[in-house]
Design goal:
18 strands; Immunoglobulin-like; 11 helices; alpha/beta; 387 residues; 6-stranded antiparallel β-sheet; homodimer; Rossmann fold; 8-stranded mixed β-sheet
């Protein structure tokens, strides 16, 4: 019976047999999926003659929809026209959810791997590789005295970086569940920077993307715990979550970067910004290190209602805001989506800033706590820096 | 009906609803999979109460096997004990093949994404991140005069690289269907180098991983064609396949690397090695640039039986071998698996070397044209270099 089972498996799926000759496993998909049509609708197809129920679950608006079975066991669905963006999705088939087998391109967000595509033209043209001068991307390790560990971070160097000229630095922080790869992979930071700089919309700068999970050495799979350390939300990583260590010791990352790269070493030439938990980090890094930073960006910031703490790093927020303003804050930029679950707490925070007359810029977008918003905030925030 | 469908979908799969709050989509899998057991057997589990037939398709020996349905709709299978290695696999469910939803770790090989795991201890300990000094990894672009295009390559710099001391360089070439990310992702090159160097088994060196598809600028998804350029075997990429351009112009990559990094700039301190198509490339790069290289590695080399060509770069093989020997070849290392489909053509090539008395070292492994072999060849080859 096993023999018959394996025989039927081999018949159905030739590529399995090609495992013995790994690198030549040529893939020929029966159907084209996804197909981004000229009118910006997107057609999904899945060959699944035995399936009873098939759906697409995507991160565009109204992104959950059933596919309809057509001839020859091919299921299909076409969206309404979608705005230019990068979209992620998976297929639901009879109780299981997985990748689109017709699409080789994937992204991991926290613990889940998604298929993705672009609807091109407008915003997505910043996320795509264009024929412009390209910066380089590095992943390297620094010794963290605060944790006694070697930790990994990612760095974008602009195309003009030649080891002689000095550049300003944006420190860009990920959210809960993210790591030092999140802004590069999901945020498409290197492409956004290449394209903003090439179009003359942003000044050339270095972008540093550290790991904000102070209890972890690097991204899941990239630490000495290897695959035993699985991607989870940051509050599930043992030790040091919101104990102030990351914010208090952030100067050691700045020192490492200033020691390794040609940077402009003053507060006028340093920005810190982050999404969700990284927005929380960016706020307290700015407030505790006004000597290091003068530009701050909070993207859907993970602020905590009535947050109180005995820790120095989180205390005296009002006094620290006033000190930051006095020292000189070039930009304090807040952005959030109308549907974000953090909308109210961010509104309260703006009220706090208003009550003490602290100047800031505010951008309110549509939708919620989504990577499309964070990429779009980059297109608005980065052009304002270091000018 | 649509409403009822969507309602049932939401009930079954809560994470779908969390798309509106992307970064906080917490994943809680019902079952643990894969589980690497203390005796080096591996247990796979899949919650699929509606499935009729479930199997695992893995790249270990006898890697195709059915899962058996147990209580509560959980299917399960346990392998025999497996040797220490990195293994890739997918699940077959009623005619569809996809990732293990319990495993967040994936690797792309050509156009297919696989789940993967380690059986630790021996060889896999070199592929895993250990608590040793870590080198850095860079992805950057150089201008190729030969193609008139900017092209991307990957570079590993050893932990000791400080911008002052000079290091020898290994140029490491991927196979057909691969790109400048293949040796890093599937080959785990950075970890292998970190661990070989930390254990004192290899001298610190720079490793350069260019893109051997001379008609392509970078990996699929990383070129100006963006996702329109899908991962395929190299002979399906239009223009320039085996027209000699890559091998003839390889000096421009060496010049770029020597200009950007602190390298020891002589043939004694340069090696070129590659797998499959990259073995073919390494052979002809060595033979046409004996002034640049004195160490050569052919891993499951994609040699072509009775290969003839009018191109200078592929002609006069015997004379060029003799010239390489005369100039001084420190190591000419050939490795292949007993079951490799290229075994015979490699045997013929060794016969050709024997007939002219060209000295080489030969390693014959078990199994076929597989990444496990190419990683294992690295553990044997790299320690021989630059000594």
């Amino acid at each position: 019976m096993l023999k018959r089972f394996l025989s039927s498996l081999t018949t159905v799926l030739l590529p399995a047999a090609l495992f013995a000759q790994q690198n030549i496993g040529q893939k020929t998909e029966a159907v084209l999926s996804p197909e981004v049509n000229p009118d910006c609708t997107v057609t999904f197809r899945l060959y699944a003659p035995k399936a009873h129920k098939v759906a697409v679950i995507g991160d565009w608006e109204n992104g959950v929809a059933p596919l309809t079975e057509g001839e020859g066991g091919v299921w299909e669905y076409t969206t309404a026209p979608l705005p230019s963006e990068l979209y992620t999705y998976r297929f639901y088939v009879d109780g299981l959810i997985g990748l689109d087998p017709g699409n080789p391109f994937t992204l991991r967000d926290v613990g889940t791997t998604f298929s993705y595509f672009y609807v091109g033209g407008d915003k997505a043209s910043y996320y795509q590789v264009q024929d412009v001068p390209h910066g380089s991307v590095e992943q390297l390790w620094y010794h963290s005295g605060a944790t006694g560990k070697d930790r990994r971070l990612s760095v974008y160097l602009p195309a003009a970086y030649d080891g002689k000229k000095k550049f300003p630095v944006l420190y860009l922080l990920h959210g809960s569940g993210g790591d030092e790869t999140a802004w590069l992979e999901l945020g498409k930071t290197a492409r956004i920077m290449d394209n903003l700089i090439a179009r003359g919309e942003a000044v050339p700068m270095i972008v540093v993307m550290p790991n904000g999970n102070i209890g972890a050495q690097a991204a899941p799979g990239e630490t000495p715990a290897n695959l035993a350390f699985r991607p989870v939300m940051s509050n599930q990583i043992p030790s040091n979550y919101k104990n102030g260590t990351y914010e208090a010791s952030f100067g050691e990352i700045v020192s490492f970067i200033d020691g390794r790269y040609k940077t402009v070493r003053n507060r006028q030439s340093r920005a810190v910004a982050g999404l969700s938990m990284g927005g929380f980090h960016s706020l307290y890094i700015s407030l505790n290190h006004p000597d290091l930073f003068s530009w701050t960006g909070l993207f859907s910031a993970g602020l905590v209602p009535q947050f109180t703490s005995d820790l120095d790093v989180y205390s005296s927020r009002e006094a620290k805001l006033k000190a930051y303003e006095k020292k000189g804050c070039n930009l304090f930029w807040i952005a959030i989506g109308k549907e974000d679950f953090l909308y109210e707490v961010n509104k309260d925070f703006r009220g706090e800033l208003d009550s003490i007359g602290f100047p800031y810029e505010y951008h309110e977008s549509s939708r919620g706590h989504l990577w499309c918003n964070w990429r779009q905030y980059m297109l608005l925030f980065v052009p304002k820096l270091f000018k």
